[in-house]
Amino acid sequence: MGATVSSRRLGSDFVRKVKKISGQNLQLCYQCGMCSGSCPMVAKMDLSPRQIIELARLGLEEEIASSRTVWTCASCFACTVNCPRGFDISKLMEAIRLLTLRKNVDYVRPEGIPREERIELPQIAMVSGLRKFTG
Amino acid sequence: MRLAYYPGCTLKTRARSLEEPALASMEVLGFKLEEVRRWNCCGGVYSLADDDLIHHVAPVRNLIRVKKSGNDNLVTLCSFCFNTLKRANLLMKENVEKRDTINRFIEEDVEYKGEVEVLHLLEVLRDKVGWKDLARQVRFPLKELKAAPYYGCTLVRPRQVAIDRSESPLILHEFLKSIGAIPVDFSESTRCCGSYQILHDRSFILDCSADIVSSARDAGAEILVITCPLCEYNLCQGQKDLAQRRSDFIQMPVVYFTQLLALSLALNPKVCHFELNSCSPESLLREKNLLRQDAIGG
Fold first, then answer.
1. In what order do the strands lie in the sheet with B117-120?
2. How far is B13 from chain A (nearest CA, A)?
3. Domains in chain A: how many in total?
4. Do A22 and B50 make contact, defined as CB atoms within 8 angstroms?
5. For residue B177, which of B233, B131, B222, B115 has the smallest C-alpha distance?
6. What pLDDT, in 10s, does the model give residues A16-75?
7. What domains appear along chain B, each with residue ranges and CATH number?
8. CA B123 distance to own-chain centroid
């Protein structure tokens, strides 16, 4: 993957917002990959959690926005408990999701869920899923 | 002993099979779980955004109701509710600035500072009943039942709210031993079932179920023991789909830990609501003579 990194990107609005929403110091990560190694969803992701951290701190917003990784995260906190640097990756994933959802763009349309599934699914699935996928 | 109890939404519908055997069993063990009056939805997931306070209001309102009722403890059964309420409580305890803002917004006549202790029922069994005492009160030990304890995510992660070690937890193992079953350790016992991804892509769930069930089976288990209504749905739904797609896939029954508790205490199996289990454990339990006709009221 080729990408241009510049001081403008490093200090961009995107980096500032991600830091503010996640409350995390992106520079803590030393790219060991424990997060990706412990992630149960990594096989379904196009970018691993480790790569997302690196792209986020370099301000490569477009690369992250075109990836499905944050929408594949199940917030299971496996990465969080396994990070040797105490970096809470689940909060970074949430921050990136919210940058989309807060523009009132839903990732899952509730009306798109088939009626029979809506009836069958436990409420806990609906409540937690719609919290994560809709604004 | 009386303890405040928070059920959450799913326990009143699909997961009555988690709730009813728990309440009946705790009564036998000398605990009255009193449902919090006028409880509201906890929000399902704890908000992970640092600049978001509004999503903490729902869980905190519940905690305030518990405090106002004069209770120090709040017992939960659903893994999601446990995690959300316990993390919200921790926030109220530790973050003075956010606590003040939330309290001002909620405008209750008490100021909440995280005084209530949020517990999961397994912690009550371990710390207030004790494994030895529980074992003493077991009337029908679940002999020879090779049970795989499946923890999932939110009971053991993140670390600051975990009911046991995040890696290789043992609390469910100890519980199973106390009621006479044989806990079968397996590598995927804390792996996520796919959680709310069921709303987005069912194929995620299928792969997770396949890995979890196969790992338990390879380790020698004959039944999967769970704590969470979303795990129940995902693991069972996934298994049903897998059985249709893969001829070599063998389904495994899935049971709530509270159902096994009720059986071990000789309660009427009716209280377990096995009709609500999507991967029914009944034929296995019957085969092992664990659905006893001489149970209380049976």
1. B32-35, B2-6, B73-76, B117-120
2. 8
3. 2
4. yes
5. B131
6. 999 999 999 999 999 999 999 999 999 999 999 999 999 999 999 999 999 999 999 999
7. 2-121 (1.20.1050.140), 133-287 (3.40.50.11810)
8. 11
Judgement on whether residues A33 and A80 belong to the same structural domain of the protein: yes
Inter-residue contact A23 to A100 (CB < 8 Å): no
- Return d(Cα B80, Cα A91) in angstroms, integer: 17
pTM for the whole structure: 0.96
Type of residue at B194: G
Q: Is B159 on the interface with A (CB under 8 A)?
A: yes
- The amino acid present at B96, given as its one-letter code, is V
**Residue A3, in any domain of the structure:** no
Range of the domain at A133: 108-135
A/B interface, count of CB pairs below 8 Å: 133
Do A94 and A120 lie in one domain? The reply is: no
Residue from B27, A27, B272 nearest B290 by CA? B272
Among the partner residues B41, B190, B198, nearest to A125 by beta-carbon distance: B198
